[in-house]
Amino acid sequence: MANKEIYDLFAIKYARHERDARDNFVDDPDPHHGPMPIDYFVWVAKSKSRTVVIDTGFDQRAADERKRQLIRCPIESLKLVGVDPKKVTDVIITHMHYDHAGNVEKLPNATFHLQDMEMSYATGRHMLQPVFRKAYDIEYIVSMVRQVYAERVKFHAGDVELFPGIGLHFIGGHTLGLQSVTVETKRGRVVVASDAAHLYANILEAKPYPTVFNIGDMMEGHQKLFGLAGGNEDLIVPGHDPLVLDYYPPVSAKLKGIVIRLDVAPKKPKAAKSKKPAKAKKK
User: Fold this and answer.
1) Over 60: is that where the pLDDT of 275 sits?
2) DSSP-based three-state secondary structure for 66
3) What is the CATH T-level fold of the domain 8-272, as seen in this structure?
């Protein structure tokens, strides 16, 4: 990619949910595994010429309905990395689950980038089934449909280069139209997995997450993440793992535990290192 851009890449924590490990894996053999909370993030990629926001989080109403702890508004939190929400022009929606696709009205000048199959899934026949419908928020879905009618959604089909240095990669599995994002940074091409891998353990231990449309596609998606990362697990950032706040540095002492830099290599304890899944393919 001759004209690729290099981005600063940030993760902003905006919410948390206390839960047990059995809630994070399809088949957890130990029912007494204990607490394993998840965090909620939005991500920001900034180059010299553009800013791209990845996902938009949820609001207080959704937090109250689902008993999540909303720590801060994810959109107002963009200001922590110098981004004015009113000036954001491009937002990647990895998928339309409630925790990734709310608050779009707070980004009045943005175009939302979404996979064709995700909109079809979130508004089609599968939503007749509560098991698939429960992770979506009807108000957020309706809001996104309004963005379509306002010509503020750009649909993509499969893997595309969105901008120089920013790639969209169809994954599926977790939802029918889930996409992950690659971002060129000074340390290499970082894979923002979003919910293709909620936790490091999902991919490093081959233990899939239980909210799933197609478990076979989810497991194949783990392989694709490693392929996108050139087989280097340190270039994959899971979507909900609190460990990323330990592995990556904060942007400042004041923002420790809130905003971290993903464009520098993680510092993992040796015990955290695991072998990547077998047969990982480079792409």
Assistant:
1) no
2) helix
3) Metallo-beta-lactamase; Chain A (3.60.15)
